[in-house]
Amino acid sequence: MPETNPQVAEIAAALRMAREARAAVDAIPARYAGGLMALAREKFEQGDSGVYDRIAQGLDSVAAAIEQNRGFRHTLESPLIQADTQLKAVLAVLDSEATGVSVPREVRNFLGVVIRNRRAALLARIIAAFRALDAERRGEERAEVVSAVKLDDTQRAQLLASLNRAGHARVRLTERVDPAILGGLVLKLGSRLYDSSIRSRLQRLAHAMKGAA
Prior knowledge:
alpha+beta, 9 helices, 11% strand, globular
């Protein structure tokens, strides 16, 4: 049996520790995500079989823009920008940055509700909450793993096995390479984050040294 990757082992240990703990419910993102899921369910029951995937793909485009575009994040988070101006700017960014996936009408309307209610800063957490609900509907969980270099087949299998042992039997794993984390792994599982990256360790070390000075 191959030796377990140290970063995978560290995340597995964190998962075991978190297994019995229950994260506090983030009420606002959960409420908005629940509303969007209810809309999708209604359309599905009316015969729109592609609505879940369409909304999920549209939200993926929004999430990618939030993660990759600092100006976009500032537009969402700034309380100084009026809601109508904010919404126009957000839709303009999405229209210019969406690559191959258009943002559907349901998602555009949903963004309007979120932004006009001055909840734009919570949009990433709302999307995460919707993804969790959609995964639950499918009988699976979504997880994103970030690594400094692409995972090989052995590392991927070890990570999925660790998730399985921690009670996460059906996980849809997405992978992203970010050399900025320097090494190790960052795992996002629903609203939970497990960070064993070298960058995070160096930041903790620098903070500890600063506190000891």
